[in-house]
Design goal:
Layout: H1 16-34, H2 37-44, E1 45-48, E2 51-54, E3 57-60, E4 66-72, H3 76-87, E5 92-97, E6 108-112, H4 120-133, E7 140-147, H5 150-153, H6 164-175, H7 181-191, H8 198-203, E8 207-213, H9 236-245, H10 254-261, E9 279-285, H11 287-300, E10 304-307, H12 316-331, E11 337-343, H13 358-367, E12 375-381, E13 393-397, H14 400-406, H15 411-416, H16 420-427, E14 430-431, E15 442-448
Parallel strand pairs: 4-5, 4-7, 5-6, 7-8, 8-9, 10-11
Antiparallel strand pairs: 1-2, 2-3, 11-15, 12-13, 12-15, 13-14
Helix pairs in contact: 1-11, 2-3, 7-9, 12-13
C-alpha cells in the first residue's frame, strides 16, 4: 500500500459521511481528467518534419500516395480531433461514433451508430468503411483509431441472411447473457464482416497502423471493439461452446440459430496470415492509466491505497462482496484506507430491466451491505454512460439505505428490477458527467475510516 507523507491519517473533523462521498467523486474526476485522450496523443503520437511517430514506429508520410483514417468507437470524435491537430489538411476518412460531433473535420464522413445495440447507421458505417478499404494499394497508409463501443457502432453481418432486426436481437441476447466481454466479442467476431481482423484483411496490402484506446482487460487487446484490425485469438469452436454454456441458442433469431445448428460459422483471420504483414498496433490509453491517476489522487488525500483488479469480469454481487471484505481487512491496519479496482463487472439481466447499468447496480448493492459503516463506494464508467441511464455511475455510503427509506424508496426492489438510477438520482448520488469522449473501462473506489 502507498501512504502520503504529511497528512493526518485520521482525517479532518468534518463529517466523514459528507467528506468521503465528495472525496470519492474528486478521485474519480481527477482520474478522468488526467487520462484524457488529448494527453495520450501528445505523449504517443507526434509529427515532426513529415515523420509521424506512433508509439515507437516511424512513418514517412511523404512516401505514401494516400492517407486514410478510420475512427470507430465512443472516443472516435476525440481521437480524430487529437490526430488531426498533428496531421493537418489532405487526409480523408470515416468517423463512426455513438454521439454527434461538436464539429466536422473536412474530408471526413460521419456516422452515428447505435450502442449498446447496433442501428441502421451502424450497418451503413460498416459498408462505407469496407468499400473504402478495398480501394487501397501498397502505397496507402491506413490509420485506425479504435475505442470501445465500436462492436455495435460499426457492424455488418457476415451472412446476408441476418437482417438488422436479427442483428439487434442477437446483440440483446449476448449483452443480457451475463457472459464476460471476451466471450461476447468472440461470438460477435464470427458473425461479423468487420470484426476479428476482417477490416485488416480487406485493407491489405496497405500499410496499417492501429491506435487503441482500450476498454478491455489488460493483455486482451484483440477484444477491443471485437478486434477489427488484429489477428483473432478466438475460434469457431469456442463460439459453439460459449453459446452452449450460456444457453443462448434458443434466444437467437432463426437466421443466427440456423448458422449455429448447421455449424456454418467461418473462421476469422489468425496470426501469420499475410493480411497482418504490414500492420502495427499501439495502445496509448487503458484502464491502467485511470487506475494510476486514481491512486495518485487518493494518496494526495491522505489515504493508504491498494489496487485490486482480481474481480474483473466477475458478477457484480460477487465482486462487491470480495472488495468490501478486502476493504474491511485493510481498515484493521490503517485508519484511512482506499481500495481501487478497475475493469468491469457483469450483470445478468432477467426479465424487463429498469433504468441503470452495471456501475449503479454494483454501487446500490454495496449500499445494502454497508449500512451504518464509515464506508463509501463509488463505481462509474470512464465513458460517462452507464447502461441505459444518463449517469456514469453512483456513489453510496453507510447512510444510503436510511436516506432512501426516508424518501420511501424501495432499494431491494430496485436491485431486483435493475432499476438503480432512479434511486441514486433521487438521493443526489448519481455520478453524471455526460459522454466524456473517452472509454477506458470502469473505476471502483472504496473508502473507509
Amino acid at each position: 500500500m502507498a501512504m502520503a507523507n504529511g497528512h493526518d491519517a485520521s482525517g479532518p473533523a468534518a463529517s466523514p459521511r459528507v467528506e468521503l462521498r465528495g472525496i470519492a467523486r474528486e478521485i474519480f474526476l481527477h482520474a478522468l481528467a488526467e487520462s484524457s485522450i488529448r494527453k495520450a496523443f501528445n505523449k504517443y503520437v507526434q509529427l515532426d518534419r513529415g515523420i509521424l511517430r506512433i508509439g515507437e514506429d516511424l512513418y514517412d508520410l511523404g512516401s505514401f500516395s494516400r492517407i486514410f483514417v478510420v475512427a470507430i468507437g465512443k472516443a472516435a470524435h476525440t481521437m480524430v480531433e487529437s490526430l488531426m491537430t498533428q496531421l493537418g489538411a489532405g487526409v480523408t476518412g470515416i468517423v463512426a461514433a455513438s454521439t454527434d460531433p461538436v464539429s466536422h473535420v473536412f474530408g471526413f464522413r460521419y456516422y452515428k451508430g447505435g450502442h449498446p445495440i447496433p442501428n441502421a447507421d451502424s450497418v451503413k458505417a460498416a459498408e462505407a468503411i469496407l468499400k473504402s478499404l478495398a480501394t487501397h494499394a501498397s502505397r496507402s497508409l491506413v490509420i485506425y483509431l479504435v475505442s470501445g463501443g465500436a462492436s455495435a457502432i460499426v457492424e455488418k453481418p457476415v451472412d446476408e441472411r441476418i437482417t438488422l432486426e436479427d442483428l439487434i436481437a442477437t446483440y440483446k441476447a449476448l449483452v443480457h447473457s451475463g457472459a464476460p466481454i471476451r466471450e461476447i466479442n468472440a461470438v460477435r467476431k464470427h458473425l461479423s464482416a468487420t470484426k476479428g481482423g476482417r477490416l485488416a484483411k480487406v485493407a491489405s496490402p496497405a500499410q496499417q497502423a492501429s491506435i487503441l484506446v482500450s476498454d478491455v482487460p489488460d493483455g486482451a487487446s484483440d477484444a477491443l471493439a471485437s478486434g477489427p484490425t488484429m489477428p483473432d485469438t478466438t475460434s469457431v469452436d469456442e463460439c459453439y461452446e460459449i453459446v452452449r454454456k450460456h444457453k443462448l441458442l434458443r434466444q437467437f433469431p432463426a437466421s443466427v440459430r440456423a448458422i449455429f445448428e448447421r455449424g456454418e460459422l467461418e473462421e476469422t483471420p489468425k496470426h501469420g496470415e499475410s493480411a497482418f504483414d504490414r500492420s502495427r498496433y499501439w495502445t496509448i490509453l487503458s484502464n491502467e492509466t485511470a487506475r494510476k491517476n486514481a491512486v495518485t489522487k487518493a494518496v494526495m488525500n491522505g489515504f493508504a491505497v491498494e489496487v485490486d483488479n482480481s474481480c474483473d469480469d466477475w458478477d457484480y454481487a460477487d465482486a462487491a462482496d470480495h472488495l468490501l471484505k478486502r476493504l474491511r481487512e485493510l481498515r484493521k491496519g490503517v485508519s484511512r484506507v482506499c481500495l481501487i479496482s478497475g475493469g468491469e463487472v457483469t450483470v445478468k439481466v432477467t426479465g424487463d430491466a429498469g433504468i441503470g447499468g452495471r456501475n449503479q447496480q454494483f454501487a446500490l448493492y454495496c449500499a445494502s451491505k454497508i449500512t451504518g459503516e464509515q464506508i463509501t463506494v463509488l463505481s462509474a464508467g470512464t465513458d460517462g454512460i452507464d447502461g441505459n441511464s444518463t449517469a456514469a455511475g453512483g456513489v453510496v455510503d453507510g447512510h444510503t439505505m436510511s436516506r432512501a427509506a426516508e424518501l420511501g424508496v424501495d432499494v431491494p426492489r430496485a436491485l431486483r428490477e435493475f432499476d438503480a438510477f432512479p434511486v441514486l438520482h433521487a438521493l443526489g448520488d448519481a455520478i453524471v458527467t455526460g459522454p466524456t469522449g473517452n472509454n477506458i473501462r470502469d473505476l471502483r473506489i472504496l473508502l473507509a475510516y
